[in-house]
Amino acid sequence: MVNLLIRRLEVTPVTFKEYYRVVDHRFGPGYRSKLHRTISGSNKIRTEQDPVLVFDEKRPDLPGRMPDGKNYQVKHYNLQAIIAVGFKIENERAVQFRKWANQIIKDYTIQGWIMDVDRLKNGGLLTDEFFERQLEKIREIRLSERKFYQKVTDIYATALDYDPTASATKRFFAAVQNKLHFAFHGQTTSEVIVDRADHQKKNMGLATWEGAPEGKIHKYDVSIAKNYLSEFELGQMQRIVSAYLDMAEMQAMRKIPMTMEDWEARLSGFLRLWDREILQDAGKVTAEIARAHAESEFEKYRIVQDRLFESDFDRLVKQIEAAGKS
Fold first, then answer.
1. Are strands 73-77 and 53-58 parallel, antiparallel or unpaired?
2. Cβ distance 16 to 76 under 8 Å?
3. Using CB atoms within 10 A of its CB, is residue 225 exposed (0-12), middle (13-18) or buried (19+)?
4. Domain assignments of the chain as residue spans, ordered by start
5. pLDDT in tens, 27-66
6. What is this structure's pTM?
């Protein structure tokens, strides 16, 4: 399991010198003598890879290990032995270790993966090449023809711990479009459809649609929230998403790694910076109600549209008739 976790973390195996640092940090300096007594005593520890004793040698590279400052013959054990003893001895630090280890095992069992974000941020895995790739991804997102809220989700997907199946990801993807809409006009996507779709209004309240301005409005046009937004509202959204992409690009240029949690927090913080209201819930209108309302209004508007609509053929006939009269 330990090797599996290490591979899953994509962490280069630490050296024995680093083992000592880990051990000292987790259990305190006295842990090493307890390790030796536990392994050498009657209550022996067996790990998958025997022997647990790796090698003996003096360690001139670790001066001051003992209180007298002298170097002594030191026994070195592999990481499996260190972890195994952590589950055997009884002291406060060992209890802390077991909580830490059990949380890792629990997360791996539930999620199928585990990542040491702090080590990734502070270690040697986040190289210049990593951030160059991040920068390239962000610039490709900027140049893409994706919708503005999709670009925000694409940025989120560049997180170093990105998992498309995580509940945090599903929550972010479900909320991001509503969060952006609410920040600029105080309504979610469903609320703006219910509020603005009206068969008595010109073009049923739509500001744009697929065939605009001369083409017919179709049923699929009326359930898209951004079709009801004014040019000013759309322009405001596009500008803030562009600024958000600027911030993402700057983070990569400064070699600052971002997690899923970081990107979620940054979006809310970014909107607050622009003095925008932050959506705190899912809104008062469901997507199903909004769609039903829009389609109901469209059925009423269809009659008006069919009566008023002038096709290219109709216009051509009128031109011919007008030319004949002249």
1. antiparallel
2. yes
3. buried
4. 2-114, 128-319
5. 454 445 555 544 455 344 444 444 444 444 455 444 444 5
6. 0.58
